Amino acid sequence: MHFISEQRLDDNVLEREFTLGDIPGILWTPGSASASAPVPLILICPPPLGLGRMYPRLAGRARYYAAEYGFASATIELPGSGERPRWEAAEQARAELRRVVEAGEPVTDEIIDALVLPLVERTVPEWQAVMDDLLARPEIDGPVGYEGGIISIGVRLARIDPRIKAAGLFAGSFVPRVMFEEARQVTVPLHVLLQWDDEGNDRQASLDLFDAFGSEEKTLHANMGGHTGVPQFELDPGARFFARHLK
Amino acid sequence: MHFISEQRLDDNVLEREFTLGDIPGILWTPGSASASAPVPLILICPPPLGLGRMYPRLAGRARYYAAEYGFASATIELPGSGERPRWEAAEQARAELRRVVEAGEPVTDEIIDALVLPLVERTVPEWQAVMDDLLARPEIDGPVGYEGGIISIGVRLARIDPRIKAAGLFAGSFVPRVMFEEARQVTVPLHVLLQWDDEGNDRQASLDLFDAFGSEEKTLHANMGGHTGVPQFELDPGARFFARHLK
């Protein structure tokens, strides 16, 4: 991992942009982090809209986690987002989704699979590589929590990587059918946010996915406010969820 | 209102048992409450199991609200519970519910109406009488929050009494059809708890009722743990909900 910028923010949080191979990302560590007192790590997965656009929201969460709870956080630019190269199949899947939505046609399972599964396949190993690197640093020791982004990335990562001890998921994206099966094999504690009046989201699919998770502890927080309107008051319960399971 | 006992608890909360007419109840006020600094009031409605049995849970919530957030809280013995006189129709409705459940027959709308609506009719005016009395005291000035109990009591009270400014509801009881209509007329902020794996509760009816509420701000917190297993970590988000709306 190469750090390409470093700044100490006014809440004493250290923000560093990095690259790991061709993955760009940002690492936030609390002022208290040191080799003698290593801290837990939260992986904050962005939606595929580009880190530049998402920076204020991601940094807001990371700085709150660092300043209030002493967690380190990392985010990455997703494959195909921001300045990262597009790939043909993903562009085609997005174009097909746009076409059916504009034509008022149903969004089929095939379209959802083509849209989501390749992104899951590419992103999960990247998160694992970031974990490999960060957990080898003296100032970060885990355990690791995951949050955000496309819910299927969280489902896959929580299912296959035992380093993930808790996951905060956002039920706001298309869910391939295979993820309902994978969800049954997820057993870590879950904290799921659902925007009840999210026009672009299939609410019943989100409730079915929540029901499918095998986790003994799972919590669903549903709110009003539309897709992007998660209330500010949900920040602290999410942080407390991680504090219960990562300390 | 007559106070029949008074004790100062070790968190400096004052606990007083009272009677108002033939309604027994308990009032908790924070150590800080005085005529010069009046406090908000939470009505904590118990389930119809008797105050004696429910005391530890109710007092735990009330003392947390008082000690951490400076709220007064009151609870009452519901009509037909504890030492209060039973009435024939309610006993018949309960017996009929037991009969169909044991026989594996469906719980019809008629049974639910007979079970719930008379209790709503009797209890709501009692809560209003308690509010009339408590809000006239110098150490309590409102606003008033309502929480708990049978969800239909909360729906009716929030619909008809403008003194209720926020309601915390527990989606764990049978819901008469008419309550879905009444819910559309409820506009105060809501915080709804749902036990996802509550065997005795119709989950879909609870989700439908949540959807029906007319409130612009409504939050659903669903958890595992069965009917009586609301996690301890839900206490503080509920208190913060009231703190946002009653201060």
Provide the fold topology:
Two copies of one chain form a homodimer.
Chain A: E1 2-8, E2 14-20, E3 23-29, E4 39-45, H1 51-69, E5 72-76, H2 88-103, H3 109-135, E6 140-148, H4 151-160, E7 164-170, H5 178-184, E8 190-195, H6 203-212, E9 218-223, H7 235-246
Parallel strand pairs in A: 4-5, 4-6, 6-7, 7-8, 8-9
Antiparallel strand pairs in A: 1-2, 2-3, 3-5
Q: What are the key terms here?
A:
homodimer; 247 residues; alpha/beta; Rossmann fold; nine-stranded mixed sheet; 7 helices
Number of strands of chain A: 9
CATH architecture of chain A: 3-Layer(aba) Sandwich
Helical fraction of chain A: 40-55%
Order of helices and strands of chain A: EEEEHEHHEHEHEHEH
Tell me the greatest interface.
A-B, 21 and 21 residues
Described by strand count, sense and barrel closure, the largest sheet of chain A is:
9 strands, mixed
Name of the CATH superfamily of chain A: Alpha/Beta hydrolase fold, catalytic domain
Cα Rg of chain A:
18 Å
Oligomeric state as shown: homodimer
Ends apart, CA distance between termini of chain A: 26 Å
Q: Beta-sheet strand percentage of chain A?
A: 15-25%
Quick check: average pLDDT of chain A? Answer: 94
Outline of chain A: globular
Low-confidence stretches of chain A: none
